[in-house]
## 1
Amino acid sequence: MEKIQQLKERFDAFINGVDFIKVPSGLYDPIAYTVLQKGKRLRPMLCLLACDMFGGEFNEAKYPALALETAHNFTLIHDDIMDQAPLRRGKETVYKKWNINQAILSGDAAMVTAFDFAMRTHRPLEVVALLNQVMIEVCEGQQYDMSFETQATVSIPEYLEMIRLKTAVLLATSLKVGAVVAGADEKDQKCLYDFGIAFGMAFQLQDDILDCYSDVAVFGKVTGGDIVENKKTMMYLKALELASPEQRGRLEDLYLGDIAVNSQRKVDEVLALYDELNVKDAVEQLMAEYFRQATVALDAVSLPEERKEHLRRYAEMLSGRQK
Amino acid sequence: MEKIQQLKERFDAFINGVDFIKVPSGLYDPIAYTVLQKGKRLRPMLCLLACDMFGGEFNEAKYPALALETAHNFTLIHDDIMDQAPLRRGKETVYKKWNINQAILSGDAAMVTAFDFAMRTHRPLEVVALLNQVMIEVCEGQQYDMSFETQATVSIPEYLEMIRLKTAVLLATSLKVGAVVAGADEKDQKCLYDFGIAFGMAFQLQDDILDCYSDVAVFGKVTGGDIVENKKTMMYLKALELASPEQRGRLEDLYLGDIAVNSQRKVDEVLALYDELNVKDAVEQLMAEYFRQATVALDAVSLPEERKEHLRRYAEMLSGRQK
């Protein structure tokens, strides 16, 4: 636990010392606003923990970790425009606080900046190549996510592939980057990547659950936001799977808006249906299965157990998160 | 001339063979639509001509050239959203043909793809670093361009700095990338870069003129588009400089919209004022000065004249362009 805390503090100190405020301020202020927000810093932490695990130097991993965080924030800035999301981490999103054009352009600059950070390490080519590969996958994931909104039916495998691309690959790549920087061999890089995919899938399923049941003050987003926006999350897809024809009809009507209801009533009715069907339990089971797969992948890393301990604890800690 | 034609045909053949059509098609179709449009391919051509000039291989420069073209198209896709431009190269812009969200996301993917292409050469680190540097400058240029729309006054030096960032640096970098790939020394890289800056400034000033006087069928954009959108181009700024207080008042009223006029009447009245003031001549003189500076920079490259001939001709050819 001390190691986790220590890496977090070291990274926070590092990121707070990076000069994000440049001219023209219109371009850079939204980047600083987003990247410097207090948060879990999940991607940098995974990168730093992986690097540390293989005996790598913090100083070689810190810029790649920052590249991953900046690239992630680029996707948030643009996704929030596309999703018309007003809140993120309890604060106004960039396009709300500034405007759409500013959010497009600052997001672009954040992405370019991420590539600049990715090169500041002793293995720049590998890190840039990994960042490149993962960012195109994240774009593909977002494309599927957008397409699902207008697609009549989405299967559970389609949904899982979407969240793999949109969320899991970036967590997996964060771990792999840390391993690469520390000089881990390819087999171990792959184990960590696999750990990250499984962990990332669990993490996103947890997000789907939290969106329905968490407290807005804790979660930092609007509770039931996915329901309001008709997002076909795992909660919704599991509900359809478990529903009787009558329940299925009710849920589809609520989502397709054939029944005129206001947002809050819609959220309440959908949640009531989820409760009837024990959807939360079903998604939690699936989530637990992914956490189990993650454990198996971590077990396969060819290091003594004590070296894996911090990453294992970190993942366990997150599996119980409320935000 | 034959060499220019030959490089253009070789690059066209290469780009048409690149697999832009992938799944999800929603993400990749707009990229293919934009990148594969027939056009001057100015940035790739500058890169290839520079590489050829120093005896470099086409095959080492083709992917960097494609990276520059793809990065340029990324900026077009996003700029057209911000500028609400309906037409580009005589065709519907991406956000018009698809929608804003699709244009944001496909633009993002184009940018990431550009970095992927940039690595496919024998000097990937240098090319990625150059692409990185230039793309952040282009974002800064676009930021200034946007800010100028709401800024009460813009000085001519401010405008020149904006077009340097928004347009000239990418042309200059295209040349430098070609030189780097061909193994030119730093002094020659810098001469070519300087040539590109001066040439790029002239090129943009020419664009400002063409926006006012070209035929839409030839130019591919709406004639007078800059005037309709109240863009403070060099035509506008030169007019303000040359105007009497009365004329200045009329021009500002037309731009600030204190007089209610429809678009066409506004364009006609602004153009009439430009004619009264001989603004076109004044901007053409400035443009000629930049072309002269470009010539001086090219003269300074340490190669025999016959090796510079193609690039020189190419620049001359473009200085007389109608689109």
Note: Chain A is about 75% helix and 0% strand.
## 2
Amino acid sequence: MKELTILNTKTDYIILRFLSQNPASYWDLLLNSFDNSINTINSIEKLLKENLIKYENNYFSLTEKGKELVKKILKTQYKDVICKECNGKGLKITEYFKDILSKFLELTKDRPHAIPEFDQGVVEPITLISRVIFMYYKGDIENKDIVLIGDDDLTSIILALSNLPNNILVLEADKRLVDYINNKSKELNLNSLKAVVYNVEDPVNEEYLGKFDTFLTDPVETIEGITLFISRGVSMLKEEGVVYFGLTHLEASYKKWHKIHSNLYSMNLVITDLLDKFQLYDLNPEDIVNKGYRVYTEAVNKLGIKPDKPTKPWYNSAFHRLILVDKPNPYYPYNKQIKLERNLYYDNEAYVTLY
Amino acid sequence: MKELTILNTKTDYIILRFLSQNPASYWDLLLNSFDNSINTINSIEKLLKENLIKYENNYFSLTEKGKELVKKILKTQYKDVICKECNGKGLKITEYFKDILSKFLELTKDRPHAIPEFDQGVVEPITLISRVIFMYYKGDIENKDIVLIGDDDLTSIILALSNLPNNILVLEADKRLVDYINNKSKELNLNSLKAVVYNVEDPVNEEYLGKFDTFLTDPVETIEGITLFISRGVSMLKEEGVVYFGLTHLEASYKKWHKIHSNLYSMNLVITDLLDKFQLYDLNPEDIVNKGYRVYTEAVNKLGIKPDKPTKPWYNSAFHRLILVDKPNPYYPYNKQIKLERNLYYDNEAYVTLY
């Protein structure tokens, strides 16, 4: 079809199809793209230049020319196909978990603020409880020993409140969070829960090796960074141990995913579940437009727009579950100090990361 | 916890937890296990021997001893957490797709029967339409050129009825199906749809190389077999091309998954979505108990039970989506004849496969 020659990537089509329903903010487009921020911005730039879409009052919409094109491209009117009941997560939030979430939200009102300089950014409540329900469904929580590296989401506290795990250990670089978690544990008599200060660049304490059933982390987005986080986690796992982590498209192309996943397979892990856009984050909207994130500065520089701060979650990641098929084979040996420094956090796709 | 020492695999726990809700048939346990048939049967055998579960009138249930144990193991009563609205698939079946499914079911009442000797076994209707909806959501159908290897499900016909794709090519070993699809295409004026006889062991026709956006297959379950199916598919893909296929746990351990996935990564593919138990199959219930499948004979031999034929779908697979991150790099070169013969279909985990 001749019209389609303008659209030379799948993301061009995804954006036009999405806008065929309703106008959308810059953040909506990022949320609904399956591509990284660079490619999504490039698509938007091209569609603007081709006069297929326009930007007014903080919203993108189809131009007359765009509407004509969309008529030819869409064989049927696009209607959202995501289940409304579960937001596409496939999971029911039963009373038991609803109660735990309410309790958690009440008890952690005094939580420390996320520090974007540490690449912290917490998942929103429905994501948090859905994550716990999914892990429970898979049999990875009840009577299990669980270790987390990094826990700005305070997943460890909601896990402890669920009363399901045996033991929960949090390894966290931010002393504020370590103290907060340990204080809550004491205050609420959550005997199973303990946090210690740990920097992922440091060797793993030998007493943790081979001790845990389940490892959860929401790591940085660089290849070396993720590989380091998961190396550390894997070395602490028992046989049949499982790994959960989030990986976004917004800061990681498919090529980067390919390298990251390949490293995971070399560690004797296999992906058993990969749920795209399962995790949504409550990033500070003020920070996003004010702190110099490339996702914002490139919108200004490349697209010539100044988006208002986001009004709802848009940053998302794919929730991964992997299982060990053999002894842990960490890419970075457990007893080696690994100094990544800036490379831990930052690469050329890092659009929602400070450096 | 002392009680837990009896339970030395995750599958022991999954089975007891499942039975804590209600008695369940042999087929229910296979459906709800995350493990392969061998390990699931081993778990059942052990739980029977330990007198934790019993088998009566076609149903497994907890014994008094089992109930006592479960009281200690379960920190809360187990309640199913799968969204009822979408059966855990996360997708809404909109009117448009509902209509297409009705039309499809009406028009294919005269379909050829599945031949188990060819490892044929068709997905049930909700799976079929959900698969199409998911591919549509991901942007892989509309205006796309689609190729299928093997199509006993007749997905090509429902795709053609959706009027969304550009062209659909079916490569199929069973001449009955090729003729059926081509006749339907003629009869219904589905210009986009064509089927040709093709055996996956044969080289790929050069005119198909690099010509398709989307490849769909529901292959055999051996490592070599799947690798061959996907090698053939990948060689026919354009840049950014995607692969969809189903892989079950019932005939494939995590170790086997690890080898299969590793082969896929070597072909420049990366997993973007992996939806466990997304696909359910309508296997002929009579065949399952009468044809000598190991999933049945091992129940008789190892467990000493004679399950009634299944009354609802139980065979399931995980729906995989992968995308090319570079040029196709098929594991088996497109121009080579590859003779796998019996090894195409059969290995020691093949419990629902004839040989």
Note: The mean pLDDT of chain B is 95.
